[in-house]
Write a structure and sequence with these properties.
Rossmann fold; five-stranded parallel sheet; DUF3631 domain-containing protein; DUF3631; 10 strands; P-loop_NTPase; alpha/beta; three-stranded antiparallel sheet
Length: 417
């Protein structure tokens, strides 16, 4: 029977170690324990983490394995502490601070672990080198029956490696967008003065959390068959529904207030990511428009902040004249560019006067990453590289996959609790 999103799951869930009512109470206990050790951005996020942990105990029943992206703008936001708590509560945890595709290929089998990857920014960051195999593996592992084929063994036989496994990845700044798109996203922030957490100490924290883990396993493991048959009504569609369905299944098995609470968290957090995507798109538009202004000014070494703002606002087709309440100003501009490592500084111009300005060379890296020039046309027959250079057009550098998303995460106000 498909649950109706209400609390009519009591008899079904009673086949496990705990009844449905006890399952709801167990989720309450888990939620309270997680909230003691970490300060999460919102009540909805705390609900989501609780359900994600519980969903790891029904992995064999799931069609999709949602990622948990634990990201923050700086160090000290509690990302690693979240992984500490997950390590003691999820099913079959495997913690690593770095990894390779070869390792992951070999540890994922028919009964996969729950991958917990700390410092994921060192895997996918701009200095991490080519990690496309690992990104592809994590993308494929979001859905069941997406094996990766490799030549393996002394006989060099084609071998299918399973990829399906739940994974939590923590790091500074957004992860690649293909992973974020398959994740329940936790945007961590530093604790405010007065926000207290319990110290995480192995001698007392681990036994407490392990007891909750064992209760989860006793309740949910016998319910894998039931969970596999459930097709819960979802408040979202497409990939967001795929990602959140395991969490909603657990909530529906528990009943009580959890089905409504899970769907409310799903709506709130997916809408928040839509806002984040829109903000990122706006920043990319800003980078393109600034490049255009520099080109119109003959690619000068620097532009006064005042002049750059005036040029941006004068573009009738751009959103800058209507940005905020009175149009884009110097504060807005600096805030939008901050995550790219770009900021105004005093610059001495040809007339000897100093003014706050943006140097063109500050933008070169961001332009290359987020809005690269379209590929130059292939030279016509008889056109030589020397001829192109003579026209002031250097050969087009080889194109490649570029990181997506600001290094420090999208800017903008964040909830602190």
């Amino acid at each position: 029977m498909v649950p109706d999103g209400g609390s009519g799951t009591g008899d079904r869930a009673g086949t496990g170690g705990e009844t449905a009512e006890e399952g709801a109470a167990l989720l309450d206990d888990l939620r309270a324990a997680i909230g003691r050790y970490v300060v999460l951005p919102s009540e909805e996020v705390l609900t989501a983490v609780t359900l994600w942990v519980a969903a790891s105990h029904i992995q064999p029943a799931l069609q999709h394995a949602p990622r948990l992206a634990v990201v923050g703008p700086t160090k000290g936001c509690g990302k690693s502490r979240v992984l500490d708590v997950l390590h003691e509560t999820v099913s079959r945890p495997m913690m690593t601070v770095n990894t390779s595709p070869a390792v992951v290929f070999r540890i994922i089998g028919e009964d996969p672990p729950t991958l917990l990857v700390d410092e994921a920014d060192t895997i996918f960051g701009p200095k991490a080198g080519d990690k496309e195999d690992l990104r592809g593996l994590l993308n494929a592992g979001h859905q069941r029956n997406r094996p990766a084929w490799r030549i393996s063994g002394p006989e060099h036989k084609p071998t299918a490696f399973p990829t399906f496994a739940m994974a939590a990845l923590a790091g500074i700044g957004d992860l690649p967008d293909t992973i974020m798109d398959r994740a329940v996203v936790l945007r961590m922030q530093k604790r405010k003065p007065g926000e207290k957490v319990a110290p995480f100490r192995s001698r007392h924290s681990v036994p407490e959390l392990n007891a909750l883990r064992d209760r989860l396993a006793a309740w949910l493991t016998p319910l894998c068959g039931t969970a596999h048959r459930l097709v819960p009504p979802m408040p979202v569609e497409d990939r967001a529904a795929d990602t959140w369905e395991p969490l909603v299944i657990v909530a529906d098995l528990a009943g009580g207030h959890w089905p409504a609470q899970a769907r409310a968290a799903c709506l709130a957090m997916t809408r928040n990511e839509v806002v984040q995507d829109e903000q990122t798109t706006l920043k990319t538009r800003l980078l393109r428009d600034i490049r255009r202004v520099f080109e119109q000014q003959g690619d000068r070494e620097a532009l006064r902040s005042h002049d750059l703002l005036a040029a941006l606002i004068q573009d009738a087709e751009a959103p800058w004249a209507e940005y905020g309440t009175k149009g884009l100003n110097a504060y807005h501009l600096a805030n939008l560019l901050r995550d790219f490592g770009i900021s105004p500084a005093n610059h001495r111009f040809e007339n000897g006067r100093q003014a706050k300005a943006y140097a063109r060379n500050q933008f070169l890296d961001a332009w290359a990453r987020y809005c690269p020039d379209p590929a130059q046309p292939i030279p016509a027959a008889g056109e030589t590289v020397v001829a192109r250079r003579a026209q002031g057009k250097p050969p087009t550098p080889p194109s490649g996959t570029l990181p997506i998303g600001p290094p420090g995460g999208p800017a903008g106000p964040r909830p602190t609790r």
